[in-house]
């Protein structure tokens, strides 16, 4: 009879752990179906039971580590709604610390402390009942868990076998989706081959502007959506007055079905001259090329945008006002062949104030202008990535907001994108008179949403305005940029 009591006590302890997994999922993802709350609890129970064979000190470390890890996950979800692959957590840990330090709300949310307190409670309960637990119990839980995972990962195709899937976290819990992530990992060589096969297949287009232009700026704007162009507030005030002017006096395009994905995938595709392969993306989460590909495996086989520009006689620069470690961008940008590579860590000691996301776009444009004035070149090609309009669209240092008391994420977005509009005006008005600008959004917004982005080509030399806005694809956009560089004829 004692052994049944021991097993029952063990089962109750494990069920307690499983329910905690489900509660975490409920807090973060709010699954509507109670069935999945039950399923996550059972999976958490089985997984925790499978590790009962471990020595006591290792099991205690697992319990404590799990609590800390779930605390980190909770902090992540204060900034993002997307599920976090374990690989992303590992690679972007420094970014997470950066977020936590800058936000005044990170450590004041009682739910975070409940998660951490439950970890301590789990450990204490385990220490108290350890003498009643038998290591052989692990087999009882490992067998059904193994059968279920085999069915889930290999037979049913409920979860995608190639990319990390947010639904795996939402409906099966973080532990299961992380195991799914490992089970479906694609080898770097397979991805590299697919990317190389997709190169040099852009549409044939003519360069959109004079080919003797000596100053070319590619500006990838964070969360610039198509619907914001020419949009007005109820009082008639324009949200992006300067971009509206550029759209009227330049070529204005509508890129449809440009759904939310990692911004880094956009600059990867533009720099390499390729269309983002559908098989690489799950629009519910992030599958980032820079984080999955080794620079030495891809760039020896590619003529990047920077390399093409250098061959034509341009001095090439890359500017981004956030950390080079985020998305693992920096080693890739360097390998792409840019002469000058600037991230937020390279903008320090210039009197700029830090935002939640690096430095502001206003500071970025100021830094670019000062840098190029200090070190002028006869022909310059610059790739710029902005960040001030990143979700949740909060700016710490916006002295002239469009709306003085924003109440919704949409109103915060209006303020942020209006701030970016002013920053772009500063850059373009102060740039050389022979400058040409390619301006586009990196993706749409899950919070604002339009599933499309604008693409504006503006020349300070000549009016490029077409009759009306045109719809083109994202690979057509990349083709127009590459065509301009490839056709450059500098005197």
Task: Explain what the structure shows.
The chain is an alpha/beta fold. The protein has 2 domains: 182 residues, no CATH class; 297 residues, Alkaline Phosphatase, subunit A (3-Layer(aba) Sandwich). It contains 19 helices and 8 strands. Strands 4-3-5-1-6-7-2-8 form an 8-stranded mixed beta sheet, sandwiched between helices. α1 packs antiparallel against α6, α8 runs antiparallel to α9 and α17 runs parallel beside α18. About 3% of the residues have low confidence.
Summary tags:
491 residues, alpha/beta, Alkaline Phosphatase, subunit A, 19 helices, elongated
Which helices and strands, and how do they pair?
Layout: H1 2-29, H2 34-50, H3 56-76, H4 86-91, H5 93-102, H6 110-129, H7 137-155, H8 166-172, H9 174-183, H10 188-197, E1 215-221, H11 241-249, E2 251-256, H12 263-272, H13 289-292, H14 295-298, H15 305-311, E3 315-320, H16 329-335, E4 340-342, H17 361-374, E5 380-385, H18 409-430, E6 435-441, E7 452-459, E8 470-472, H19 474-486
Parallel strand pairs: 1-5, 1-6, 2-8, 3-4, 3-5
Antiparallel strand pairs: 2-7, 6-7
Structure at a glance:
The protein is α/β, with parallel strands linked by helices and 491 residues long. It is built from 19 helices and 8 strands.
């Amino acid at each position: 009879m004692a052994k049944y009591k021991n097993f029952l006590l063990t089962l109750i302890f494990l069920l307690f752990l499983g329910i905690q997994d489900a509660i975490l999922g409920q807090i973060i993802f709010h699954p509507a179906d109670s069935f999945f709350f039950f399923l996550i609890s059972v999976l958490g129970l089985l997984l925790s039971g499978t590790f009962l064979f471990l020595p006591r000190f290792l099991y205690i470390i697992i319990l404590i580590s799990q609590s800390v890890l779930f605390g980190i996950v909770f902090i992540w979800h204060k900034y993002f709604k997307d599920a976090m692959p374990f690989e992303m957590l590992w690679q972007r840990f420094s970014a997470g610390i950066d977020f936590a330090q800058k936000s005044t709300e990170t450590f004041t949310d009682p739910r975070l402390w409940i998660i951490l307190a439950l970890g301590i409670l789990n450990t204490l309960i385990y220490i108290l009942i350890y003498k009643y637990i038998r290591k052989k119990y692990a087999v009882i839980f490992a067998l059904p868990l193994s059968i279920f995972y085999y069915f889930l990962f290999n037979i049913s195709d409920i979860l995608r076998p190639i990319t990390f899937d947010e639904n795996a976290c939402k409906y099966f819990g973080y532990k299961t989706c992380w195991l799914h992530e490992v089970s479906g990992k694609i080898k770097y060589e397979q991805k590299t081959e697919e990317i190389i096969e997709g190169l040099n297949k852009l549409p044939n287009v003519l360069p959109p502007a004079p080919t003797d232009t000596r100053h070319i700026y590619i500006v990838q704007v964070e969360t610039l959506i198509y619907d914001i162009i020419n949009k007005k507030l109820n009082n008639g005030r324009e949200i992006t007055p300067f971009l509206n002017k550029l759209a009227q006096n330049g070529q204005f395009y509508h890129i449809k079905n440009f759904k939310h994905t990692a911004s880094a995938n956009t600059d990867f595709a533009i720099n390499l001259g390729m269309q983002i392969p559908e098989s690489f993306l799950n629009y519910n989460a992030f599958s980032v090329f820079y984080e999955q590909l080794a620079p030495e495996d891809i760039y020896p086989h590619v003529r990047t945008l920077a390399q093409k520009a250098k061959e034509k006689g341009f001095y090439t620069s890359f500017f981004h006002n956030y950390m080079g470690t985020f998305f693992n961008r920096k080693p890739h940008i360097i390998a792409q062949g840019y002469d000058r590579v600037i991230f937020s860590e390279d903008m320090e000691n210039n009197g700029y104030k830090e935002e939640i996301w690096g430095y502001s776009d206003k500071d970025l444009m100021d830094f670019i202008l000062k840098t190029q004035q200090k070190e002028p070149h006869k022909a310059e090609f610059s790739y710029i990535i902005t960040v001030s309009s990143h979700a949740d669209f909060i700016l710490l240092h916006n002295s002239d907001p469009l709306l003085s008391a924003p109440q919704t994420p949409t109103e915060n977005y209006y303020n942020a994108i209006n701030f970016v509009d002013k920053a772009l005006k500063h850059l373009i008005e102060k740039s050389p008179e022979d400058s040409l600008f390619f301006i586009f959004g990196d993706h749409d917004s899950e919070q604002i949403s339009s599933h499309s982005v604008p693409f504006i080509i503006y020349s300070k030399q000549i009016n490029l305005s077409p009759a009306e806005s045109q719809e083109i694809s994202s690979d057509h956009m990349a083709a127009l940029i590459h065509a301009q560089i490839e056709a450059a004829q500098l005197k």
